[in-house]
Design goal:
By secondary structure, the protein is α+β, with helices and mostly antiparallel strands. It is 38% helix and 23% strand.
């Protein structure tokens, strides 16, 4: 399944209600053309999260929860 993200902030975008624009980014508070976005395969992102979680679950007792969670987010962004 593909979802569309903003090139600037990398958050998911919605279909625009403004004529002439394709998408709307709530984070940037801007209307976007298709060229200002990119598609991402959500199933691949979910799989990367599962792999990262399994890798970090072995280390969860060695680090505080906040550090563990931040490391999880870094691994997901790298994939």
């Amino acid at each position: 399944m593909k979802q569309v993200k903003c090139n600037r902030c990398e958050n998911f975008v919605l279909k625009s209600k403004v004529e002439g624009y394709t998408y709307s980014c709530d984070s940037c508070e801007e209307e976007l053309y298709t060229i200002e976005t990119y598609a991402v395969d959500v199933s691949a992102v979910k799989w990367a999260a599962i792999v990262a979680f399994s890798q970090l679950s072995r280390m969860r007792n060695k680090f505080p929860l906040e550090t563990w969670f931040l490391q999880l987010l870094r691994i997901i962004k790298q994939r």
